[in-house]
Amino acid sequence: MSRLPDAHGASPDEPTPEQREAHIGELRDKRHARRRRLALRSGLATLGVLLLVAAFAYWLLTTVAGRDLLLAQIKARLPATASLTWSSAEGPASGPMTLHGVHFRWNKLDFVARTVVLDPALRPLLGRRLRLDAMRIEGATLDLPPNDKPFELPRWPDSLPQITVPLALQADDIRVDGLRVTRQSAPLIDITRLRGGLDVSSGRLAMSHVAIDSDRGRFALHGTYAPADDYRTDLLATALVPVKNSRTPLRLGFVARGSLEAMDVALAGAAPGPVRVTLT
Length: 280
Known about the structure:
The chain has helices at about 15-60, 65-75, and strands spanning about 80-85, 90, 95-105, 110-125, 130-145, 170-185, 185-200, 205-215, 215-225, 230-240, 250-260, 265-270, 275-280. By secondary structure, the protein is of the alpha+beta class. The protein has 2 domains: about 15-60; about 80-230, no CATH class. Strands 1, 2, 3, 4, 5, 6, 7, 8, 9, 10, 11, 12 and 13 form a 13-stranded mixed β-sheet that branches. Strand 9 and strand 10 (about 230-240) form a beta hairpin. Helix 1 (about 15-60) crosses helix 2. It is elongated and about 115 Å long. The protein starts with 16 loop residues before the first helix and ends with a strand. It comes from Cognatilysobacter lacus. This is Translocation/assembly module TamB. Keywords: Membrane, Transmembrane, Transmembrane helix.
């Protein structure tokens, strides 16, 4: 009698364990190759985008057309009641960029400058903020609007000054040579030289070692004043003011620290005798 085949024997078409391992390895290699192709395509797409961004940045910062686009963006961010014009422009947007015959109007405020030199930061305009590494102004006049408010006794804190600007400005190095400030053409102060840094936006003013030489005296300012933040203040100011018919100038130092809830104010100096006032 012949022997029946073993029911548990391997089928001749069934792959061996070695063949299964080889097939799994082949699938794994294909999967890895597909991942490499996808990564390569993604990398090439990212590189293409970066090259386009770099080309646009180069065009914006080094060409006349890029400079004009930047200036147009600055004008577009001004409020409807403000206008900015200039007679001619020189230099790329990467700086230094020189504007001649600058005329800025905002409501009843009027500013005219013979020359304004701007050195924008790498990100010159984000949102409504103009960021400058340096700014130089020569031969300028600022005419302030008339004060139409009737006289009122000072009230706390309404008598404290507010900060309102058409465009937030941050300039690390400001140099002004010649700035006459008037009100309805009547002279207020003639600034011959100003140096320092400035960061101003509506509701906040920060000054960094601002030094002013003028016909009214020499002044220095450093610190912050933020009426929008509960009038938070950390300000130091000094003044050296000539006195008519006297060889001894008036010397004053002013310090204010705190907020609307608690503010410490001190005034000291010589006028020409000793002066010392402290308010808390």
